[in-house]
What we know:
alpha+beta; 90 residues; three-stranded antiparallel sheet
Amino acid sequence: MTWSVSAIGRAPKVREEISRQFTLNKCVEPEESVRQSAAKVIDDALAAQDDNFVVQVSASGSQSSSDWNAKTGVSNSLAISIVPMYGFIG
């Protein structure tokens, strides 16, 4: 399964939107635990941003298995990007 979230804007609004997006779907374990850990890391990082900064956030992950029926050989990928948009006019 795969998942993704993304938003761009002032840090408080992005924090709200990303949090909302993380409530929309659930994944199977252990991917759901990885996804919820990513949600916490992103929320903590956005809480530490100055409210006036514009930030661009994107995160995605996926889980695969070498034998899906037996649920063996599970691997998880995860990417998180939080970029302050310095010099943003708007």
